[in-house]
Here is the input.
Amino acid sequence: MIGIGIIGLGTVGRGTYAILADHNSLIREKTGVDVKVVSIAEIDRQRYQGLDADGIDFVEDAETLIDNDKVDIVVELVGGTDKAYRYITRALQKKKWVVTANKALLAEKGEELFGMAERQGCEIGFEAAVCGGIPVIRAIREGLPGNRIGYLLGILNGTSNYILSKMADEGLAFDAVLMEAQRQGFAEKDPTFDIEGVDAAHKLCILIRLAFRFPITMDEIVTRGISKVELIDLDFAREFGYRIKLLAIAKEEGGLVEARVEPAMISMNHPMANVNGVYNAVYLIGDKVGPNLYYGKGAGSDPTGSAVVSDIVDMAMRRTTGHVRTGFSAHRGDRRMKRGDESISRFYMRFKAHDRPGVLSKISGILADYDISIASVVQKERKEDDYVPIVMLTYEATEENLGLAKEKIDALPFVGGESVYMRIEESRL
Amino acid sequence: MIGIGIIGLGTVGRGTYAILADHNSLIREKTGVDVKVVSIAEIDRQRYQGLDADGIDFVEDAETLIDNDKVDIVVELVGGTDKAYRYITRALQKKKWVVTANKALLAEKGEELFGMAERQGCEIGFEAAVCGGIPVIRAIREGLPGNRIGYLLGILNGTSNYILSKMADEGLAFDAVLMEAQRQGFAEKDPTFDIEGVDAAHKLCILIRLAFRFPITMDEIVTRGISKVELIDLDFAREFGYRIKLLAIAKEEGGLVEARVEPAMISMNHPMANVNGVYNAVYLIGDKVGPNLYYGKGAGSDPTGSAVVSDIVDMAMRRTTGHVRTGFSAHRGDRRMKRGDESISRFYMRFKAHDRPGVLSKISGILADYDISIASVVQKERKEDDYVPIVMLTYEATEENLGLAKEKIDALPFVGGESVYMRIEESRL
Here is the structure.
């Protein structure tokens, strides 16, 4: 019997407990391992309600749980980074194996923690840290060892995807959908991390280290959120055959790595364009396997609990034989991050301008000055505060030039307010 | 160093060899294991061309390879069932671990072979037997151990999916697309196994044993192919908001198991409806994780080789520590297969009838006699051999009643030729 200690009985903690309780015999039949929760650390005693207390040592401080000899695997589900860091390092010092769903901690201190685990002959399982119930860590690590992965797209944040899907489907503005999502529990009271792309960037950080084996840091990921996405852009996207998604994008080619989380347009025909609502997905291309896509619920008590349990079972199977998996073996080598003048993409641009002669020629003149060619233009009569929207799709241009051109255009007297631009992520199938 | 012996240098054999040769150091960096091809058995000496012969023992008979002490893992890629069975059992007798892509053999004799492997303390890896490059075996077995899986949909045959996609997209008839697919190498010279659903049934057989842990046999899977799918049905499907796919369908509820491979309609909004061309996908629902979908290339040298290599690497990691995975632990328990009078679905039906008064009332009368309610009817003026097509979507009815009603309707004097019917697989999201 392998003893499990759960620190934190929040959403994921309760889900994990419930799966281990409900499916104890199913897991034994399937895998031959017997895993049992022997201790739970949680300060809020109300959360103990409804649990079968039989054989479980309930404690208020995590240290007691970690030090308990019956606990073989420590499951850290408190979130945040300070306490979680202390708990995990303490567990590793005691040579206990660790399972965590803590993407923020792994993004910030993953290198250090995995190094410590390796030195201690221990493991840190983190399937639950990325895409909740989708076994994407296993798929990449164990399913594709014979592949060099050079391209990865992710829809990694359920809240953002829910909001964008709802805006597109029902024609509701961002604020209205966010409020409704908060009422329904699909968005946190403070949704900043979700809607500003930080949560997705944490997950992309982990995926890049695993898939590219490149030790990227959070500040190297260009991160933009969805709070400025307007209905008009969703409409134009549809008109051009695209959808707008908060995409996590990672590419490696010729020693140059690019990593971004931002609202971007993707062709309706791409499988990622049809990932809607609270669903998450990862699309990647391996040099041997070609494209692979994994799809499922990215959050929630049971889906994330399912991922935690998959780590527990995997570890329990191997604890008896002493087979230890290594963590990240990421190293930069001679690779480096792409600069803005090397990052090339097609772009969607929307300007607000007074409807008068010469406007279009002035704008396209500035774009030409920066080597940006226009693939198509739409100018609608639809007026907003005396301005008409002018929309352009560009051919490939550098991010840097686009930013410079935008600055000049926004300063024109007949242009009102900040222009909008968005990457068009070319469908690589 | 773990020595690999490859039996059979066909499409998958060459892909496997190439990945191990190209990515030897990548695999070592990622996983710490050193795997090397030490022997290849292949009668056709022309297939040795272009291989780096260094350190490889080329032999003509598989027995010599199996008996070679340097071979730790035997990779069986000859296909067929007789020889492959002999090679695998011989390898297991020698206590060697086995990797195979042979779905037919596992569907027919999986129980026996996995039992033998377990008794010998060996393993049989079979990631490559289902859905080529998609790590679906790993996802189900290692990613979802804490889930009871009760629903599974598969698009498991690339040839059939390519043909149906092409028919739908380009309005070409079955025969024309098949011939073109054969010219392009997407279909075999003798495509029977692919287009008649047998290949998909082999794979579904393996998936059901793994996901439901139910020891299903091939004759328990209702198997129909796509050779009778007509363009007119693809058109009607689209009109009603569906697509036609060769779906592998498996369900378990209340101790009743249902397993089918057949062309069926699925809502355009379902993620499986957008799996096109040679791509494969598996969609399943776990009681904890909810829906999961895995998508990628189901066949081909490199994708399938990628799956073979994932098994080799996984085994190589564990050979040193003595940790052996168990195979299928499937057992019927008190579960049984659903009968035709228990199998309930909505159906699409198409009749060819003379356009005269009373036809519709006669047909719908017979359906009513068998408790089949009609949800919608379309009768088009479009004529074919003096007949008009009458299309109906039914509410839920039993398969048995539908068959009986169809027989009576087909015997009516004003009905020309066999009617067409197809399941509507309700979108479970």
Observations:
- Chain A touches chain B through 57 residues (CB under 8 Å).
- The longest helix of chain A spans residues 301-319.
- Chain A has a mean pLDDT of 94.
